[in-house]
Amino acid sequence: MVSRVIPVDPFDLVIFGGTGDLARRKILPGLFRRFVAGQMPDDAQIIGAARGDMDDSEYRAMTEDAIREFGGRKVSDDAVARFLERVHFTTVDAMGDEGWAKLAEKLPPGRVRAFYFSVAPSLFGALAERLRHFGLADAASRIVVEKPFGHDLHSARALNRVLEEYFAEDEIYRIDHYLGKETVQNLMAVRFGNMLFEPLWNAQYVDHIQITVAETVGVGGRGSYYDKSGAMRDMVQNHIMQLLCLIAMEPPARFEPDAVRDEKLKVIRALDPVPAHHLVRGQYSGNGTHPSYCDDVEDPRSRTESFVALRAHVSNWRWAGTPFYIRTGKRLRARTSEIAVVFKDAPHSIFGADAGRHRNVLVIRLQPNEGMTLDVTIKEPGPGGMRLMDAPLDLTFADAMSPDADEVPDAYERLIMDVIRGNQTLFMRGDEVEAAWAWTDPLIDEWEARGDVPQPYDIGAAGPEDALMLMHRDGRKWREIRG
Ligand code: NAP
Q1: Is residue 146 lining ligand 1, measured as CB closer than 6 Å?
Q2: Of 19, 148, 337, 345, which has the fewest beta carbons less than 10 angstroms from its beta carbon?
Q3: Which intervals hold domain Glucose-6-phosphate dehydrogenase NAD-binding (predicted)?
Q4: What does the alpha-carbon distance between residue 338 and residue 420 come to, in Å, rounded to a whole number?
Q5: Which residue ranges make up each domain of the chain?
Q6: For residues 368 and 151, which has the higher predicted lDDT (pLDDT)?
Q7: Prior bond to 347 cis, omega within 30?
């Protein structure tokens, strides 16, 4: 099945930080793929902006390199040439007053205007102010801001206030690229588009939920940033929180931005504080091949966690008593992100103890190979009586939706097109971000006050021993981390 592409209105997209890593790896290649898919109108404009001195042809050469490196398989010379006709560059300093008038001249009136803040958050306020001051933002304007959205509740609030000074909430698009993933949206389709799951989606039938986001890489070149952040701020407060919300939320009345975001906010507000014994922090040790976390960040005494596991509870009618186990970390056994909804045992086995008992598990896999599997219990084939086994019903989206895996849009390209369409459903609202920080801040404050040292774990393991114990104590176990 070939995906249906609905073209968007003519637009001008200005990428502040247009020469940076994010622009080169994600934004520009993503736009190119949407162009190839036929979604971009002929007169759309993409304008890179940064302090560096470049002309259009130099920026086009940089964009072409980025597309060839990160644009996927369908990079024909003709498509690249046609795409580059839409690409321009302007020199502008977020903190200065030069270049803004020239940028304004490039923006025709009466079209959608999107300003992507792909720069350090410390520049967000200055950019927002100048967009207004120099008259670049009009009624059809919107801004896109990247993570990290704050470092804690205090800084997130400050960032929200400064943006709100110049832009209304419905003009602010806070990106969490996890929400742009095909599987994450399919999670909503599966939950709310089928009769099958929703009646079972509660504490009565669900034993527990596991959310795992495992990486094999270390902090690499991001050491100085990561060491000030850690797994809790870098992954749990934003990406994992969003996944948890989509799993746990009540059905919104409509698939509309505020209806969905209101329900997500209720989940965050229903989260109990996590006691210290339900939380494990870890840090990878070095081996002969790879350095330890402390070596990676060049601070032998760093107490920042590269791994966190916790047991969360959503205290509401639907989920009372159902644990949500969360773990995320670097330098783990495999690169995988998944949500597993583990259903309870059937109340009675008619087959007797020898047949074995199996549980239904719905696994929503974000990477690798986005898709879902549902473990169902069947009879072991062959003679020898009734013995039961698990068989997965497998729905790998790339196979199911299109013969060409390249056609499954990347999260960034989908979200950028949503910005142009003016659809905020998959973007975080300011109050959601603040509520998420309000939940994680006390956990971080508490371990900082205790001077907690993270537990070491081996590279290639599944995290520290205590993370395994977190589930063992409850008579459960983590799913294997498999790539
Ligand atoms: P980067 O590689 O350091 O690039 C920064 C960009 O901002 C460059 O184009 C730089 O060009 C421009 N810039 C810096 N100061 C400026 C100023 N005063 N006025 C105008 N432009 C300025 O950073 P990045 O990795 O692309 O990250 C950009 C943002 O996205 C950050 O907030 C980051 O946290 C976030 N983010 C990045 C990733 C990622 O994968 N890279 C993922 C998630 C979120 P000049 O120096 O020439 O001005």
Answers
A1: yes
A2: 345
A3: 14-186
A4: 29
A5: 11-146, 179-472
A6: 151
A7: no
What is residue 380's predicted lDDT score, i.e. its pLDDT? 87
Per the prediction, the chain carries an average pLDDT of 93
Count how many residues are written for the chain.
483
Any known ligand binding at 97?
Answer: no
In this prediction, residues 351-369 reach a mean pLDDT of 85
Helix (H, G, I), strand (E, B) or coil at 11: strand
Ligand 1 touching residue 280 (CB < 6 A): no
Closest atom of ligand 1 to 50 CA is 21
Peptide bond just before 148 cis, omega within 30 deg = yes
Our mutation pick for probing the ligand 1 site, out of 14, 15, 25, 51, counting the most ligand atoms within 8 A of Cβ, is 51
The CATH label, of 1.10.3470.10, 3.40.50.960, 3.40.50.720, 2.30.30.240, for the domain at 11-146 is: 3.40.50.720
The region of weakest confidence among 256-270, 275-289, 322-336, 408-422 is 408-422
**Model confidence over 434-455: pLDDT tens digits?**
999 999 999 999 999 999 899 9
State if residue 126 touches ligand 1 by the CB under 6 angstroms criterion: no
The ligand 1 atom nearest the CA atom of 95: 18
206 is written with which tokens? 């669900």
Q: Which CATH class is domain 179-472?
A: alpha beta
330 is in an annotated binding site: yes
Q: What pLDDT does residue 1 have?
A: 47
Residue 352, sorted as left (phi over 0), alpha (psi -120 to 50) or beta, turns out to be left
Q: List, edge to edge, every strand of the sheet that includes 141-145.
A: 87-91, 45-50, 11-16, 112-117, 141-145, 172-174
Residue for token pair 């994450």: 184
CB of 123 closer than 6 angstroms to any ligand 1 atom: yes
- Whether the predicted model's global pTM rises above the 0.85 cut: yes
Order of all β-strands in the sheet with 455-457: 388-396, 371-379, 361-367, 336-343, 206-214, 323-329, 307-313, 279-284, 455-457
Atom index in ligand 1 nearest the CA of residue 16 equals 21
SS3 143: strand
Mean pLDDT within 294-300: 94
Mean pLDDT (whole number) for 175-196: 91
Q: Which of 25, 47, 90, 118 to mutate to test the pocket of ligand 1 (most atoms within 8 A of CB)?
A: 118
Residue 226 near residue 304 (C-beta atoms within 8 A): yes
- Other C-beta atoms closer than 10 Å to the C-beta of 216 total 16
CB of 51 within 6 A of ligand 1: the answer is yes
Contacts of 203 (CB under 8 A, 6+ apart): 318, 319, 320, 321, 322
Q: Which amino acid is at 406?
A: D
CB 210 less than 6 A from any atom of ligand 1? no
Q: Which of 88, 208, 239, 278 is catalytic?
A: 239
Q: 318 a known binding residue?
A: no
Q: Which atom of ligand 1 is nearest to the CA of 92?
A: 20
Q: Specify whether 239 is catalytic.
A: yes
User: Is the model more confident about 75 or about 142?
Assistant: 142
